[in-house]
Amino acid sequence: MADEVIRQDEDVPTGDDAANQGQDAESATVVQFLQNEVAKWKAMSRKWEGQAKSNADAAQKLAAYEDAQKTEAQKASERIAALERDANEARTKALRYEVGVEKGVPTKLLRYLTGATKEELEANADQLLADFGPDTGASTQKPSGRPKEALRPGASPAAASPEPSQLINDNIRQAARRRVVNA
Fold first, then answer.
1. How far apart are CA 99 and CA 72, in angstroms?
2. In whole numbers, what is the pLDDT of the chain averaged over residues?
3. Using an 8 Å Cβ cutoff, are 115 and 121 in contact?
4. 14: which DSSP letter?
């Protein structure tokens, strides 16, 4: 039996130490796995970035090649089509402003006038005026941003409202009374 006696100074693994060593090994394995995954995804990201750059270069070269292959007649017809589109947009915008001024639509509502013909625009202007009313000119005044001196707190009537200093004194007295009662 004397041989079986364990000395106090010997390191004897306990159940907790073995479990901790197992957790440490498991967490190290997980950390290593995650680091490998990060490295793998970074490499894939770099690969696809390079592919995207080469695709963009190829697309630019293709567009330049197609432009070079166009005849002068095709280039001229594209310019004419673009100019006609711009002219139609300008004509429509001018007609919208003309109808808006004739009908008295406020300038801030002119962008809501829609229609392809003058009749459609006039009908739309009438509807806007029916919904929002004509421009009375009152909307051009801007508020000053500072409250007027006669303003009072919302719950108290204007005639019976006390001075602000009186309100502060009343609040202080009420707080003192509550403190005395609670003490």
1. 41
2. 79
3. yes
4. -
Mean pLDDT of 13-34: 75
Q: What is the arithmetic mean of pLDDT over 81-98?
A: 93
Q: Which two tokens stand for residue 36?
A: 């490998």
Paired tokens of 170: 């009343």
26 is written with which tokens? 């498991």
User: What is the C-alpha separation between 150 and 158, in angstroms, rounded?
Assistant: 8
Cα–chain center distance at 122:
36
Question: Which among 113, 130, 131 has a CA at the least distance from the CA of 122?
Answer: 113
pTM: 0.36
Nearest-angstrom CA–CA distance, 151 and 143: 15
Domain ranges within the chain, ordered by starting residue: 72-134
Contact (Cβ atoms closer than 8 angstroms) between residue 99 and residue 118: yes
Q: Tell me the mean pLDDT in the region 36-48.
A: 95
